[in-house]
């Protein structure tokens, strides 16, 4: 409890404020989750944070907090985009009133111009980035995009500017098909799969560091959505073969899942 409060107070001093709007547990890999979460709730009770939440928590970790009889987070910030849609987590959070925030709503733009998203954006009169953001918002989620230049900033605002012009049902259906790729861009998101029994108690110091510095496979192995099918180069699997990393999900060339993802249906 003391460590969490000291860290929060240090942040408040650096920000020169008396309260933050939202304070998050960055990653569950630190262990002592029950102890840490009780301390987070205490921060809110003390008025140091208006709301408290978590980041990179999966259903099993949220269920662990719930089983312990603790109040659930008000928000869970995770990697979430059209190529990593997390339906199980989204359903869990929606059923319990936990807001879901996407910290990488564009998937780092690794697939832009390479999947059916390009065709969906063209038919909708929007950029691919704006379609990704609208998909997130129409799903009832929050999104935190970046902006490298004024054009990106304008595209971000465009996603919010026309709530009376949502993506059409056919566009949403095709975007749902992109989830077949099961691809993630951020190594830290792998912490969602860590089993609760390994996190609730104390962890050795060497196991507490998040996977933020590890690289995940990029999208360079993907073929263009408008190129003729090359069945030998569809999806490049992660050579590590880990079930907890952002590897490609192997989909049979020529299958309905492939055709859906690459705009060939």
TrEMBL record:
Bias type Polar residues, positions: 222-234
Superkingdom classification of source: Eukaryota
Pfam families: Aldo_ket_red
InterPro entries the UniProt entry points to: AKR, Aldo/ket_reductase_CS, NAD(P)_OxRdtase_dom_sf, NADP_OxRdtase_dom
Residue intervals of the NADP-dependent oxidoreductase domain: 4-162
GO molecular function: oxidoreductase activity
PANTHER family (UniProt xref): ALDO/KETO REDUCTASE (PTHR11732)
Protein name (record): NADP-dependent oxidoreductase domain-containing protein
């Amino acid at each position: 409890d003391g460590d969490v409060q000291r860290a929060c107070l240090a942040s408040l001093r650096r920000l020169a404020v008396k309260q933050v709007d939202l304070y998050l547990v960055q990653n569950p890999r630190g262990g002592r989750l029950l102890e840490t979460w009780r301390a987070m709730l205490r921060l809110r009770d003390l008025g140091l944070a208006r709301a408290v939440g978590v980041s990179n928590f999966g259903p099993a970790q949220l269920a662990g907090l719930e089983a312990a009889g603790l109040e659930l987070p008000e928000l869970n910030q995770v990697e979430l985009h059209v190529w990593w849609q997390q339906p199980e987590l989204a359903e869990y959070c929606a059923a319990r009133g936990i807001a879901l925030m996407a910290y990488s709503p564009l998937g780092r733009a690794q697939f832009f111009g390479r999947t059916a998203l390009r065709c969906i954006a063209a038919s909708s009169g929007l950029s691919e980035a704006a379609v990704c953001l609208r998909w997130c918002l129409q799903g009832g989620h929050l999104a935190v995009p970046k902006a490298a230049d004024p054009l990106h900033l304008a595209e971000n605002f465009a996603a919010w500017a026309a709530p009376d012009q949502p993506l059409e049902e056919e566009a949403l259906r095709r975007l749902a098909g992109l989830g077949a790729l099961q691809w993630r861009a951020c190594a830290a998101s792998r912490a969602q799969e860590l089993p609760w029994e390994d996190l609730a108690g104390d962890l050795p110091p060497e196991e507490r560091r998040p996977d933020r510095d590890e690289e995940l496979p990029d999208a360079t192995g993907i073929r263009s959505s408008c190129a003729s099918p090359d069945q030998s180069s569809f999806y490049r699997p992660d050579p590590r073969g880990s079930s907890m990393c952002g590897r490609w999900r192997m989909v049979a060339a020529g299958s309905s899942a492939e055709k859906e993802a690459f705009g060939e249906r």
